[in-house]
Amino acid sequence: MTDTPKGALSPKEAAKYVAGSIAARNRSESWFQFWGRSAIALALAFLILLFVGILSQGIPGMFQHYVILEVELHKDRLDPQGNMSEDSLYAGDAGGLVNEAIMRALDDPQGRKQKRAARSIMSSGSALRLNHFLKDNLDLIGQTVTVKFAVDDDIDSFLRGFITRETPDADRRINNAVIAFVDKLSADGRISYEFSDYLFTGSASRNAEIAGIKGALVGSIWTLLVCILIAFPLGVGTAIYLEEIAPKNRFTEIIEININNLAAVPSVVFGIMGLAIFIVFFGLPRSIPLVGGIVLALMTLPTIIISSRAAIRAVPPSIRDAALGVGASRMQTIFHHVIPLAMPGILTGTIIGMAQALGETAPLLMIGMVAFIVDVPSGMLEPATALPVQIFMWADFAERMFIQKTSAAIIVLLAFLITMNAGAIILRKKLERRW
Amino acid sequence: MSLTSLVLSVLMIGAVYFFMGQRLITRYRSLGKAKAHSLPHYHGLWAALTSILPGLILLVIWSIGDDFLFKQMVKDFYPTEILSMGTMDQAVVRAKIMNVVEGIAFGTPEPWIQAAGEAWISWKSTSDLALTVLAIAVSVGSGFCGYRQINPEFRSRNNVERILLWALALSSMVAILTTLGIVLSVLFESIRFFKLVPPQDFLLGLEWNPQFEGAERAGSGGGTATYGMLPMFVGTFLISAIALFVAVPVGLFASIYLAEYATTRVRAVVKPLLEILAGVPTVVYGFFAALTVAPFVKSVGESMGLEVASESALAAGLVMGVMIIPFISSLSDDVINAVPQALRDAAYGLGSTKSETVRQVVLPAALPGIVAAVILAVSRAIGETMIVVMAAGLAANLSFNPLDAVTTVTSQIVTILVGDQEFESAKTLSAFALALILILITLSLNFLALQVVKKYREQYD
User: Fold this and answer.
1) Which H or E run contains A150?
2) CATH assignment of A214-431, among 1.20.1630.10, 1.10.3720.10, 3.40.50.12780, 3.40.190.10
3) What's B326's DSSP letter?
4) Which domains does chain B have, with CATH numbers?
5) Mean pLDDT of the B333-340 span
6) Contact assessment for residue B302 and residue B308, using Cβ atoms and an 8 Å cutoff
7) pLDDT tens across B224-280, in order?
8) Taking CB atoms and an 8 Å cut-off, how many pairs form between chains A and B?
């Protein structure tokens, strides 16, 4: 041990060297761990911030203020033609009755300004609401009934404290007369704060208090229906073909490269393709769920194909050999044995793909599903909008109450997405078999 | 009949043939004549498929074809001076005719437009009637031919399976058709755009002002439309760079911690939570960026005495970075886990601490995968649309300052193409040229990521 090579350390020196550096090395070790922990903490903090932000705006957005009024259901004035038809109700004077009710509740204010202030408390959807109430309660006709009406969104903002009394009268969206009336209504116990029944039943509207997501939700459902009807068979078919049937040659390689490339194409490009091909070239109408569904299907196809292929590949060859051995044809082997066993994986991939499609906005903007559509679409050929697009449109509106409505719509969208993803996880846990 | 009910009736006819075919073969069997080659439901399927497929193919071709045909036929009504006009004015004329067809009247249309519209209506009703009769006749007729073929010796199973094989092969062609559709639609419109605006002006121009197009055409001299894409290119680059500046360190450190340090329990909780970030729709991130982050960035910046635009690149980039974190962390997590344990054990055996092992052994081994993940993240950031549309604004400033408002390729595409477009104007076509650039960039990044993995991946086993 005496012939230490030149320049090398003797064991003793080396031990001393190591011992001297240990403190620094341990310090750097704990710094490294600290950075790792902070990275995770930072990412989770973003997540919490996002959810707290959305929930704190969105949960109040699911509620709204109502004013409770006694209305006389005057038969002749509500329904002049006496047949309860849309036309007759439209020609009727529901607005006038609501108007009288609010005036009565405020002890008949005098003067044009006062009357206008009283009227401005009511939402512009009040007459329609009275007509709906009448349709649901035909037996109450002729009586005086208690109905709850939505208040105008500015009043709602005031009641939530977004519009303050301290602001000078001229800078406020509602003037002192209106505030005095609102105070009187709350003192009389006529103002209630409850779950918004417009959120799920109302359609698109520029008035925040009566805007709802019904139309958008139904549009999303139609779009997803088209999407799954196209993407599921095509995706699974492609996966079967590539995994079970296709020879490994240049052609299948091209298909595989194509699928991987499609997975990387930005979603907005699929929208552009939909616009150029389905709307401009084939002349299909704009804004319809059919085109939206096709575009989203083409976009989610790679997701479904890739996960289906993985699921099919995971089925052990012995299953195929056994089926072939007892005389099943190749198609029977695939459809009677391989696919049922691969189904949990295939369905998981499909649900994840559908969740992607449900949250997607950009391609739908391109094909015009961003129009202002009041009617609830009744088919895949009717103009429609979709939930994320509705969120996008509402986010652009300046009114204070739309921020809360938008957050409420986001909560609904996230609830759907979380349910779908949780479903996929449960499916995978429950049904997936390990070989 | 409407298209939906026609499709349903064809399917019904097919269902009837299915049961007829099945019954026919079971009757043969009960007569004890011969053992059938295929199981009864294959015979039923054969009869049903021979009836449904021709019917549906006819329906599809007819309903796509009739509009094209009518568009040609309606030209007979055009006065000669309209035929010599550009395609854009012809489209206006056709829209007027379609208004007559759909019964929407804006004033009194010119008599020849009224006549063309009425002719269109009568063609349409004739065509619908003919389609109804033909589709039902074809599916009944060809189904009957298939049904007639059924007998115990008939190889129904083989025939049905051959059809199935073709269906599977065709469905795998859809991926190719989609790619082709994307490339061709974008390419053709881009070529039209480059005829109007020279490519060098587009690629190297420093100013982007398509909104002046209307003024220019009207000759009011409000300014000239310019189509230089560099400001957007810079904007896209700036926002993506900010996003990566957030996402790469956070995502990478998170994945290292999860893979090397975290206990299984922590991992089982944190990993799904990170994946929630990936599942949040981009429109939600956009809303969050515009509503919460942008004002926050502005107020922080202003409290430090900086001038911050209310739609700053920084806000959009930060939120986009958050969106990309799970993308980077899950991809690098996979790569880090793929590094064999033996390498770590060897490093520990030499006396390294855990962090030294990670930094000097695991990370170098995982580097190609991590680089590929980062490249893919860049491609995601460049293609991301909703966040920038909602939070980054539209001002096409050529600026590298993250506190300025910038615009990106995707947000310009959306701005141009949302709403009504005229497919003749350079403004609309410019969106396709931008899309072409976008596709080229994302695909080449993808290709690059693939090459990095292919070239530098270590084979351990």
Assistant:
1) strand A144-150
2) 1.10.3720.10
3) H
4) 3-154 (no CATH), 230-456 (1.10.3720.10)
5) 90
6) yes
7) 777 888 888 889 999 999 999 999 999 999 999 999 999 999 998 998 888 888 889
8) 246
Residue A85 has pLDDT above 80, yes or no: no
Q: Quick check: B325 contacting A, CB < 8 Å?
A: yes
For residue B25, the model assigns a pLDDT of 85
Contact at CB, A261 and B250, closer than 8 angstroms: no
Joined tokens for residue B234: 């810079």
The pLDDT, as a whole number, for residue B261 is 92
Contacts with A, B 92-121, CB within 8 Å: none
Nearest to B250 among A42, A237, A270 (CB): A42
Which of the pair, A142 or A274, is modelled with greater confidence?
Answer: A274
CA angle A320, A321, A325 (to 5 degrees): 120
CB contact under 8 A, A366 and B283: no
State the burial class of residue A262 (Cβ atoms within 10 Å of its Cβ: 0-12, 13-18, 19+).
buried
Which residue from B452, B455, B276, B293 is spatially nearest to B378, judged by alpha carbons? B452
Q: How many residues does chain B have?
A: 461
Return all residues near A413 (Cβ < 8 A) that are at least 6 apart: A358, A359, A387, A388, A391, B281, B284
**pTM of this structure:** 0.89
- Quick: pLDDT tens for B127-174: 889 999 999 999 999 999 988 888 888 888 999 999 999 999 999 999
Chain B residues within an 8 Å CB radius of A277? 181, 185
Give this complex's ipTM.
Answer: 0.90
Q: Which residues on A lie below 8 Å from B423 (Cβ)?
A: 280
Select from A43, A277, A392 the Cβ nearest to the Cβ of B325. Answer: A43
* pLDDT range class, residue A2, cuts 50, 70, 90: low
State the pLDDT at residue A1: 47
Q: Which of A255, A265, A281 has the highest number of chain B CBs within 10 A, making it the mutation to test binding with B?
A: A265
**Residue B443 touches partner A, C-beta closer than 8 Å:** yes
Q: How far is A362 from chain B (nearest CA, A)?
A: 6
Strand partners, A66: A150, A192
Q: N- to C-terminal Cα distance for chain A?
A: 57
**Domain range summary for chain A, segments of one domain joined by +:** 65-194, 214-431
Mean pLDDT, range A136-141, rounded to an integer? 80
B:373-392 residues touching chain A, CB 8 A cutoff:
376, 379, 382-386, 389-390
